[in-house]
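@channel anyone free to eyeball this complex?
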Amino acid sequence: MPARDLVSRDVRRLSLGADPVEYVLVRRRGRRGVGLKVDENGLTVSAPSTMPLARIESMVRESERWVLRKIAEWRTRQVPPVRWEDGAELPCLGLHVRLRISRGSRTHTELVGDTLHVAVRTPEAAQVRRAVVAWYKRVAREHLERRLRELALEAGIAPPRFFLSSALARWGSCNSRREIRLAWRLVKAPPALVDYVICHELAHLRHMNHSAAFWAEVGRQCPDYRRMRAALFATDHLYRAF
Ligand SMILES: [Zn+2]
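replying in thread with the prediction:
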């Protein structure tokens, strides 16, 4: 449907099953029924422009089991193992980076456009993987440290100390010594999601909790944080593939 029929697009929350579920409500002029879609961005509900919210949400609840099952499927989706071979695609800061593997007398990695040239002595999976992970860590150190500094200054906070982390289960953490740790795997996500995680950790420098005041602080710098959080929640398994 053309964008001109779009009336509004809001992030909302309703309880389904045991938990509140965030969803995006898209209202369109000329639309008749209510449509549900679950994908890597979570639940999207499309509805006519004038349908009362209570009626929309009761229709979503009628499909509660389907919605919860689809969300669970996305959450636990099996990540296909990375093929560490020529032509494989890897995500990096919103790019789909394509691997070009060659033999070299020493290990060398270089990104040209969206092609990552990887030279290794023997093009076997373990060597390619090691070279690519080292490259990701270099990208992560540069990008995360720079964005942390820029977003701290934008928020009027003295830039905290930065450490690169290899954590698999948490994207960022922060402590009372004003040290922020960010996972190198985070640069597999698009830049907007990376910025959200950084704003989240920076807000913890002012509020060491997840109170309403904390989320208001996050929202000042990252007004779209609800959507970012939902997107990170829905896709984070992809970033853990290696
Ligand atoms: Zn937090």
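from a first look: The longest strand covers residues 6-16.
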